[in-house]
Amino acid sequence: MLTLVAALLALYGAAALLGVVGGRRVLVPVYVLSGLAAAATALGAARFLASGAAPETAVLPLGLPWIGAHFRIDALSAFFLFVLGTAGALTSLFAVDYGGHDDDPGRVLPFYPAFLAGMSLVLVADDAFSFLVSWETMSLASWLLVLATHRQSETRSAAFLYLVMASIGVGALLLGFGLLAGGSGDFAFAALRGAALGPWKSGLFFALAVIGTGSKAGMVPLHVWLPPAHAAAPSHVSALMSGVMTKVAIYGFIRLLFDLAGPAQWWWGAVVVALGGITALLGVLYAVMQSDVKRLLAYSTVENIGIILIGLGLALAFHANHLDLLAQLALIAALLHAFNHATFKSLLFLGSGAILVATHSRDMDKLGGLIHRLPMTAVAFLVGAVAISGLPPFNGFVSEWLTFQAIVNGALLPQWLLKLAVPVVGAMLALAVALAGVALVKAFGIIFLGRPRNNAAATAQETGALMLAAMLALAALCMVTGVAPQLVLALAQPAATLLLPHGAGLDLSSPLWLAPLGPDHSSYSGGVILLAVTFLAALLGLVIHRFASDRARRSAPWDCGFPDTRPETQYSAAGFAQPIRRIFGATVFAARERIDMPAPGDTRPARFEISFRDPVWEAIYAPTARLVSLLADRLNLLQFQTIRRYLSLMFAALVLLLLIVAVSQ
Amino acid sequence: MRSALLELLQLALPVGLAPLLSGLVRKLKARLNGRIGPGLLQPYRDLSRLLRKEVVLAPNASWLFRTSPYLIFAAIWLAAAIVPTFATGLLLSRTADLIALVALLGTARFALALAGMDVGTGFGGIGASREMMIASLAEPAMLMVTFTVALVVRSTSLQHIAEYLLTHDVGIRISLLLGVLSLLIVAIAENARIPVDNPATHLELTMVHEAMVLEYSGRHLALIEGAAMVKLLLYVSLVAAIFFPWGLATDIDDARALAVGLGSYVLKLALAGVALAFLETSIAKMRVFRLAELLGGALLLGLLAAIFLYVSQEL
């Protein structure tokens, strides 16, 4: 398997080089090569997992001279390679058609394979140095991809914010690895695994790991860069960033905290569960308020990361209390949700790309009625929307159901704080899932239903065959995973068993029922629901058409007697979100509505204004930015000194450093 | 053979009895208002008349608008068949636990809200937007009740819950009392009854459900209205199965128990209908933005109930 990954990395490298040299002309070969490599990754990883092969390791004489570069594939890396490969292959297929619509494909082509390669490398890295280098490759490649649309000013600020946040994240990871390695200088994961940190140091490591990986995944409050960056990137890149890169960050989280950090402490679980609940709820509230479809989807990514973090936090809490069976349940729920989110979020972002190609707009208030103009895209987008809203019989529900099962069992945790936190987080998760439904009804309803709101939407044309094929394949995956989640769970189980070896015993054998804790507990079957609903609906349709009436006539809509043909009389994106904005937004976002109604006889137009404040930005980022710029102003003094002053400064710094060394020894 | 027949009965029962329950509520409300009101069987007549009428579609109504009524009715029908009505241990009950049941109803609502937006009228939009707002609070409240019950019973499966409560003496628990209160509020909200919504109104800006389905006619409307009736019956069965499971037959081979189960089920439906009629006549409809307080209250009650149990649970 490692040989395969090495070969595929070479393939990515070849594709990237081709992209550098060829520019626009080599668009098809670059995406085909990347897609083939990703597909091979997925197949290889699935085979590796299904065969139950032992972990493979390799040491190459690269990187730091005294340790070399270590690579390793175990069940956890293989599962995430599977996620990466699946989404990457279909995204590349989409890009073969879509890539030509980019403003400047030459700015995308070299970095797209490099991005895929960087993510694959993170998943197989087995020492801190290679891990960080791969992590930075992934970050920089995606940063360059975001900059593909650099002519728009919002892209530039999004990219800047992304770069700053990525640097903070990698800084935290660097410190964390340093803490783990101590003075030994051996950065191989095998050596780090054995490091026994005291309670304080391991707590610090936990915090650094959460900041480092959480900032990449989009955890609140470190999520601020994610929506603008994911929205600004070309749509197939957005699909990869939201669908796959956040999962690589989740992989980092699991690798650092379940594998390297040593014995888990129960309060880690409490912190992660709480962060997950806040992330899920705040992310989805932001999503409901958006009227730009790609920003809505990006905020929904934040929500889904929250759901995954809830699962992981519960797993940590159960694991710390030696309830390993339940820990496995929670972990497997998180892993399945990671896969599910990769499928439906890639699907939805690709759908937004198709909409963008067809109408040149991301603003929902300029769309409408696309179900008639883009029928197949509409079907695929609808499947994605239902799946991401956590509704049966699609895949999003299965992982959320498993997470809820873990939450129900949270009462078995002995610590009071957890006993209190788990039901509250359960309520937050339930709210988040219900609000996700609101956000996606809004997205699908405003974009695809109703009447077109402008000419571009009225004359849109269905997109290319390969784009449709990629979206429909992802939609099919959402359906299959929903009906037969056992297929993916079988791939996730080795990873869960690897990390929690004492928890074996989850029952995932039955092909029809999902009853992980045994037949006497709760069960669910997506297949039966799908079959029964289809059968009953078909039966109803046949009987009614045969025996009652099958006549239909087209006529003007009723609309309580006053139909208005102007498309502006339809509900807008902001109007649809109004109830939610009033209920939640007034407190969370300080949302205010200002109505300016001219007096009778006055001909000036009436105005309606909505203002928001972002609590996270104002509480954390704005003060930090002010502080940094204040300090920078003060330190500016140091930039304009004579050489004599500089020399004395250096001397003082040297003395200080020697003093520190002397005191600390 | 016997279990297959019983399963068919379980499938037929909600659809067969739902219009009667709605007829009962309407008749009683009319009597309480001092009117004679239509007969108990009027909903059956309405539905069969609607089914035989032709459908009038807006010019831009899509396939989604035309297929949604069938899917919605089928999903709610299946959900109603999963809730134990007169007996436990039937085949379909393994398909979904309480969480999946809530989600299945969510799928039906998702389809209904989209269908409401399909024609692109103002009323459809307002209905869909408000229905989703109500759902966004009612659904979590319902899940909190689920957690509460699940902690007492150690399962989220409906038949386990009913059987456990039948065979164990759980006593009077504060959590269950809070839970039943929360569930009742959710049931009223989900079924668009007063004080949340008025099922008998048109041409009123505060309406929710009726605004959403305003463009439906003929057989489509019959299915939507029928689905609403089945949903009302479903919630009655749900409250009955979770909190008042007395009379449920646990042994499907025992003919006498089955008869008792059926009889007690019909009795419970009638009682629920009477209670609903009295409730709806005695209070006024709320303003739509006051609903957040009512439903938020239900959510907090559910959360409180769950927290009590989480904290008191031992290994």
What does this structure look like?
The complex is a heterodimer of chains A (665) and B (315). By secondary structure, chain A is mainly α. Chain A has helices at 2-22, 27-51, 75-98, 111-124, 128-146, 153-181, 189-193, 199-217, 226-232, 235-260, 266-289, 293-320, 324-359, 370-373, 375-388, 395-408, 416-448, 455-458, 465-483, 486-499, 526-548, 573-576, 578-588, 615-635, 643-664, and strands at 56-60, 69-73, 552-554, 592-596, 607-611. Among the domains of chain A are: 264-540, no CATH class; 615-664. In chain A, helix 1 packs antiparallel against helix 4 (111-124), helix 2 runs antiparallel to helix 3 (75-98) and helix 5 packs antiparallel against helix 6 (153-181). The longest helix of chain A has 36 residues, at 324-359. Chain B has one domain (2-312). In chain B, 70% of the residues lie in helices and 1% in strands. Chain B contains 11 helices and 1 strand. Chain B has helices at 2-32, 42-52, 63-82, 98-118, 122-153, 158-167, 174-190, 209-212, 218-243, 255-282, 291-312; one strand at residues 55-57. The mean pLDDT of chain B is 90. At the A-B interface, helix 16, helix 17, helix 21, strand 3 and helix 23 of A face helix 2, strand 1, helix 3, helix 4 and helix 5 of B.
